[in-house]
Automatic annotation (TrEMBL):
This is Disease resistance RPP13-like protein 1. GO terms for biological process: defense response. It comes from the Eukaryota. One of its GO terms (molecular function) is ATP binding. Keywords: ATP-binding, Leucine-rich repeat, Nucleotide-binding, Plant defense, Repeat.
Amino acid sequence: MAEWGIAFLSASISVLFDRMASPEVADFMLGRKQTEKLSRKLKTAMRSVNAVLADAEEKQLTDPLVKDWVDDLKDVLFDAEDILEEIATEALQRKLDAESSTTVEKALDCISNTFLDTFVNEVEPKMEEVLDRLEDLTKQKDCMGLKVGVGGKQHPEQVLTSYVSESDTFGRNEDKKKIIDLLLSSDESGNERCVIAIVGMGGIGKTTLAQLAYNDSRVEQAKFNLKIWFCVSEEFVVPNVMKSIIDQSATSSASYTEDPEKLQAILKENLTGKKFLLVLDDVWSEKSRHQEFLSQLLRYGTQGSKILVTTRNESVALAMKATATHHLKLLSNDDCWSLFEKHAFPDGSSNADPEIKDIGRQIVEKCKGLPLAIKAIGDLLWSESNVERWTNILKSNLWDLHMEGTDILPALRLSYKYLPSFLKRCFAYCSIFPKDYILKKGQLVLLWMAEGFLQQSEIETMEEVGNRYFDALVSRSLFQKSLGAYESGFVMHDLVHDLANFVTGQFGFMRLKGDNSKEIGRMTRYLSYFHGNFEKNIEEDLYKAKQLRTFLVISFEWKEIKMLRAQCLKVLSLSGRIRQLTELFDSIGKMKHLRYLHVSNSVIKELPNSICMLYNLQTLKLSIGRFERLPRDMWKLKHLRYLDVYNPSLKELPNSICMLCNLQTLKLSMCVELERLPRDMWKLINLRHLEFDYTCKLKEMPIQMGRLKCLQTLSKFIVNKHDNGSSNIGELGNLINLRGKLLIGQLQNVRSAKDALDARLKDKRLEELVLEWNPSKQVRGISESQRGVLENLQSHEKLKSLTIQSYDGRGFPDWIGHISLPSLCYLALKDCPEVDSFPEGRLPSNLKQIVIRRCEKLIANWKKGCDHLQILPSLEWLEIERGSENVESFPGRLLLPTTLTNLRIYNFGNLKSLDKEGFQHLTSLVHLEIFQSPKLKYMPEEGFPASLRFLIIWGCGSVFTQKLKRKEGDEWLKVARIPNIYVEGHHIQGVERFPDRFSPYEPRPYEYEY
């Protein structure tokens, strides 16, 4: 598309000029007359075509010859980039070889120079060929009448970073009520099992409406055993729908079988006898077999089961035999303006220039009532005070331009047109991911960086630049937060994805299972495969796409490797079972331009040293098993910035990785055999993130950790008993930029309270802190000294989560209180046997969850030591494990706050009854669990509060639980009105699916990104 491809090209030309001016390329050309001459001619030709790009922007939309010219220009610029990349890589390789050369090897420079001459003789013909093509295109521009300096005025490039609130739904209350009524009612014939459809044009808000209904409290209270959401998009692949239902049904482990009969059997088992709500979003299929599939699902379910379908076409609703169809209409003028106001004016429109408001209303009219269009244009104009800019957008010819074969909204075309040029390539690149694919910010930034899309900055790292780009695309509504139940991230609306796909054109392709419609060719630079067996296609496609730059393969089993002829490849990501991994790595070692390498879900016994020949590598992610160590020559990966290893067999990291001065992130996950980190870690002066989770054998931190002044993330710090060869806790004091999460382990090894003070935790903006002594009683240390250490580990006032474990002190310091930690939401006390009370004074008033495990004295002294829990205004979750032998009744009158929604009581060995006066005032209580209390016999005499919806009893007195299972006896009468009851793992009444037991406040391990 005209201006779209043009801005893409403008960014490409800018990158080329920067690359030609780089020291590596400039030094290579210096003194080589022919090469310098070719370089000058290339610059002249690029300036010539760059001068007419603005005019081509206007003409390409309507003139196919101009569109072909733009595609040819883009292709030759890609080739020019590849040549310059080749030169820069050769220069880097020679520099590294020189650094590692011996005296004898340096005497052989004449041989090296011979190889250099050979390289020059190879490169110069390529430059001549690119120059010929570029000069030919400059001649064609004159024949097509492209003129210099013609086109729309360029505006300053703004990158917005403010996120737009998700609560921007206007004018849909009646629609929401109608859908909820349909979900909760039977059809005209009295059948409660049926298909309901929401029909409306693209961008009108069908998915949003379905989400509003799906998450509404009335639907939550309708006692659906299962709620399942699946986005279908163009291809209705029944096995994929079946797998998603199985994964979300949670009554059986997810199956990865491809056998349709096995999938059907598991599906039937998971749905039979259950009332379910299934949402199928964005359905296009009108095939009868898909309607039969939906009917079969409904037959499995009980009365009240519903399938909600969203679609653009009423014919789909008819084909699916929807018993009720809701046609979603355009927004009213007032609702359109309210939505636009929220996205265009930071403080509302009341203080805006009247002229701008008038133009804004005219722009809103052109959006024709479509929420997606209004949000895109509003975000484009956010904070804009230039009347001329508003006028240009109002009068743009893109509003009225009709384009054959596309449904791309004019507002989205405009939003893309006015994107800064450096964002356009980042946005277009996302077309190689499937619709509704969950985009992870960190992952995408690494891919953009590998492709060279991020501009260099003197004040920001490349990762920070990429994060800013990502935020800018979010602020334009081109990315939006995912509302998926299982994975957080961002998605592109399907119409936005269509825009990205159109922009990329024939330069990027994405294949899904069963899709062979697109023809891969020489111009293809970005290629991805998702969820399918494409082994034959891959071999053929890679043969054609010799200039490929990105190659992604996700969820795939590879029997034989016949690939990787693409020597220009910069990004390679292979996720799936690969049987010939050693051969693959031998092939990868020759890909000298590779910057991003990710291999996962496979096994290899030894990583070949050839991987260390990838001199340009910036990102290395290995989620593969069996190998015990990384190659010895890791130091050669001078450009490596991100190293991520997930491997239970890894025993050793070579000290050579400490020479990677550009390394910014080191992640070690599930490296359970790893005992120590390299001794010279302090040399990684640019390291910002050091994360090692589930490394249970790690015994100490290497020396001089305090010299890592750039460190922002440190997941764990282990205090060693002796200083020889390791860091003491005082090294933390120098890590002034630490934030996020931190676990400090083996605190019994801190020699004095003063050493703990040297850690200066109070100065670090940590949000989650775990303080952990050794759980073994033989090595815990002296109680009094532990109190002093804890006293001096006071954290920053912004701390949100605090866990204290295996602490033998007799009390808690006062800093664990509402004055010092006003933001604390989560407090966990585990294995603190000597503590008998909370700190004097009130606990932080913002606390939402308290966990107390194996603190016998504290629980025995509950009425006195914990008496002020009742006045905590925000407490919602309370979990108590292993009560004192003296506790026979719990919790006691008015000892818990009325705000409590979840109460969990575990391992109370002598608990006989639940206090008759301890529950009635808990008017917010929803969820009660009682585990491993074998002497429990009696429920509260007064029963439970009316708010209680879930009662779970496990491991309690056998006679007592048997009566509950049989629904008989006095104790059953006390609980019979509770909607959902589970006893000893058996569903007694209510929904069959076990409720989510994970607190939203409890800290979780670091997320391991794909």
